[in-house]
Amino acid sequence: xxxxxxxAAMGGFLFGYDSAVINGAVTGIQKHFGVGxxxxxxxxxxxxxxxxxxxxxxxxxxxxxxxxxxxLLAAAxxxxxxxxxxxxxxxxxxxxxxxxxxxxxxxxxxxxPTYIAEVAPTAYRGRLASFQxxxxxxxITVSQLANWALNQAAGGESTNHLAGIQAWQWMLGVEAVPxxxxxxxxxxxxxxxxYLIADRREEQARKVLVEVEGPGVDLxxxxxxxxxxxxxxxxxxxxxxxxxxFGLLPIVWVGIGASVFQQFVGINVIFYYSSFLWQxxxxxxxxxxxxxxxxxxxxxxxxxxxxxxxxRIGRKPLALAGSIGMAVALxxxxxxxxxxxxxxxxxxxxxAHATVALVAAHVFVFCFAFSxxxxxxxxxxxxxxxxxxxxxxxxxxxxxxxxxxxITVTFPNLADWNLSATYVIYACFALLxxxxxxxxxxxxxxxxxEEMG
Length: 453
Hints:
Blueprint: H1 2-33, H2 37-65, H3 67-86, H4 91-119, H5 125-153, E1 161-162, E2 165-166, H6 167-173, H7 176-186, H8 193-198, H9 202-213, H10 219-231, H11 250-264, H12 267-279, H13 285-309, H14 315-337, H15 351-369, H16 372-382, H17 389-440
Antiparallel strand pairs: 1-2
Helix pairs in contact: 1-2, 1-3, 1-4, 1-5, 1-6, 1-7, 1-12, 2-3, 2-4, 2-17, 3-4, 3-6, 3-7, 4-5, 4-16, 4-17, 5-6, 5-13, 5-16, 11-16, 11-17, 12-13, 12-17, 13-15, 14-15, 14-16, 14-17
C-alpha cells in the first residue's frame, strides 16, 4: 500500500519539481533573453494556466482511460516538456513548453489524490493521501537542491555554461529523469478497484481489494457496497455539479474555496520567486538559492508533521492551527519588508529586519506545510461523493491553478509597487481562512468514501 501510494504520488513529485524549478532559472532566463519582470512573470505563470486546463480534463481522462493510464500520459508530458524547455529558441517557445508541463501538473494534481483515496484503507487514508503533498515538497526540495548545485557548478551564475549548455537550461531539462521514473512506477501498480468495478472488471477489482485491504476483507460486501454506489450514478458530467443557491453544489464551492485560500496566502511566491524575492532586498543570487533550499527543507519537515497528525487529530484542527500561524508569520514578514530601502537591484534591508523576514518566511512555510499544504489535498481526495469525485476534484483543482496563476503573475509587479503591502494582502487571506475552516469545512477523518455526500 505504501508503494502504491508512493508510485501514484510520483506525479506529485513532478508537480513540485516542475512548479518550483523555474525559481532557479528565472535570473538566467531574464539575462539570456533580455526580458524584464513582466515577461518573466508571464513565462512563470503561463504554466499554471496549463495546469488549470490539465486539471479540468483529468477527471474525464481518469473516468475514460483509467487512473493508471492517465498517470502514464502525465509522465510522458512531463518528459517532453522538460526536454523542450531545455532548448527554447525564444521566450515565447519556452512559454509553450511551460504550458505543456503545466497540463501534466494539472493532471497529476487530480489523479494522485483520486487514486490514493480510492485504493487506501479507511483507517490510513489520510496518512497515505499525505504522500501526495510529501511528494510535492520533496519535488520542490530536489529542484532547489539541483538548482543550487548547478548554479555552484557554473560559478554562481545561471547563465554560465556546463558542458556547453547554460546552467538554467540544465535546471529545466533534468526533469525528464524523474518523469521516466514516474512512468515506470505507474506501470507497476494496480488499477483502482472502483474504476475496475465501474468498467465491469469485477474479478480484477477483487484481486486489488485483497492486495490493498488485506486477506481478511469481506470481498462480497465491499464489492456490493461499491457497486451499489456506482449503480446510483451515470458517467459524471459538469451538469451533475450544478445545484444550490449559487450555481454549483455547496460541497463543490467548499472545495473551490479551500483551493483558492491555499493559494491566496502566497505560498508559491516563496517557491516560484524566492530567489527574486531575496535578491530584491539585497541578497546575491547564490545565497538566495541557498535560502530557497532551506525553506524547502522546512517544507519537508512540516509535511512530515502533518503526515503523523492528520489521521490522529483530524483535518480541521490542523487547518485552523496553520491558518493562525500563517497569519502571524505573514504579518511579521510584511512589517520587516516595510523597512526595505531602494528599488530594483539597489534595494537593501538592514540585518535586523532581514533576519525577521527570513525567520517569518520559514515559520510561514512550516505552518503551511503542516496544515493547508497537506489538508487541502487530503480533503479534495475524500470530501466529494463517489458519483462526482473525480470531476468535482478536477473543478476544485482547476480553481486552485487559476488562483495560483493570479498570485504568480501579479507578484513581481506588486513587489515593485510595495513589497510590504503585498504581504499584508497575503496575511489578510490567511486571516480570512480561519472562519472559512471553522464554518465551512466538515471533518472527514475516519469516514468511508461511500459515506461522503
